[in-house]
Amino acid sequence: MDGIIELSNFRCRHNFTIKSEIFLSALQRKLYHVLCLEFERENHHNLVLIDKKKLQFLQKSAYTLIQLVSNPSLLASDTSFKHKELLKAVLLEGDSAKLEYVTLRARQLAAKGEKVIIWSSFVQNIELISARLFDLGADYIHGGVEAGSDEKEYTRERKIKKFHEDPNAFVLVANPAACSESISLHTVCHHAIYLDRNYNAAQYLQSEDRIHRLGLKPDQKTIIEVLCSPETIDESVAIRLQKKVKLMSEVLDDPDLNIDPIPYDPNDDLAFDFEDAQDFLNHIKTEAKAL
User: Fold this and answer.
1) Which of the following CATH numbers is that of domain 4-22+97-228: 3.40.50.300, 2.40.160.20, 3.30.420.10, 3.40.640.10?
2) Whole-prediction pTM value?
């Protein structure tokens, strides 16, 4: 499949974590570069001083790039988007390489009888992937899914129960903001795929812990697979998450970071701070200079 290279290991607190490098298509890369140029020009005269208003603007810009790298069609509903013709050309290519990869990987795992949870920050991604994998018994959880009794149809608890008990339900697609606390999947699922991530380390750690908890057999491998597009905001997110996790580990004096729960602000899913903003600015400045 175009846009995919071999998997490589990197160190983390889990038994086995893999980073899958997924390259942007040529048109997707062109649109990414255009957006970085636009964002860099808007911030060219004020790259050092970041106030609260600018932080909000940069967070929105970062969110746009995460969407583009994950699934360009997420930008189609933005009426203020300035590059509609180029976006149209990108969309005519079909699914992004990340979407192609995650659906293929889920099918590979299901063929081996393995269940998988797929994480994305975006509701449209969550419902799209679930629909594409409907034949694998896929279901989804996001903020629009009600909590309630597992006896009531369409509730979060009913969907989780199905994932646990139905041998033909191989895939659960979820949003870390809606499915990161008080849900244990570790007894039935040992593989997670992150289609995209953002700067919220608390949500990220909680989502990881859905399948990596006490009570697992000593020889049970827990596999966390992170999709990362090289030379994109994915790398900025990875750097900032690593630093935040390290800081949390030092503060808590807990190198394994078995934290449950971690409180977070439900109105700030990105958890984008001033250091994130500076790293993001450095990224778009580098990208804007690239040929």
Assistant:
1) 3.40.50.300
2) 0.87
